[in-house]
Amino acid sequence: MLKEEVKARLDQILQENPSLFLIDFTVSPSQHIKVVIDGDEGVTLEDCMKVSRAIEHNLDREATDFSLEVTSPGATEPLEMPRQYTKNVGRKLEVKTSETTITGTLVSASAEGIKLEWKAREPKPVGKGKTTVVKSAEVPFTDIVKANVVLKF
User: Fold this and answer.
1) Mean predicted confidence (pLDDT) in 9-18
2) pTM for this model (two decimals)
């Protein structure tokens, strides 16, 4: 019952804020509600507060004792939804497929998959030494096992 109430309120608040989208939503047996949201332009503290208030103010604490946590995905969390890739175009990603791992710049994201580019050193076709070439790969979402943004320090 609680899960359906929260889900209905979540759907409503996300429709009112189209730049936000749901990543994960769980209700534990101990009535701990966890909501993970993301946004096309990122997520602010105010966004989390709006979602939290929209849920909390529409639930009756007298009827159900619950705890509520509304967060955004952390910087080290893997990308899970195609919409997350779109907001990270231009950033460096590490993408693991069942066959290989590719680290490159996310050039584009479509409904079917992503395109990555990276530089590689290869032997010159003629003579000694190596030359730098730009390589690219298109990876369908169905092939991606895990994808993370590579953070620079």
Assistant:
1) 92
2) 0.81
Contact 147, 79 (CB under 8 A): yes
Q: What angle do CA 99, 101, 103 make, to 5 degrees?
A: 150
Give the helix/strand (H/E) hosting 25.
strand 20-27
Contacts made by residues 50-58, CB under 8 angstroms, sequence distance 24+: 50/13, 50/17, 51/10, 51/13, 51/20, 54/9, 54/12, 54/13, 55/6, 55/9, 55/10, 55/13, 58/5, 58/9
Strand positions, DSSP E, 28-129: 32-39, 67-71, 92-97, 101-109, 113-123
What is the average per-residue pLDDT within 109-124?
93
* Residue 30, token pair as written in the block: 């101990």
DSSP state of 151: P
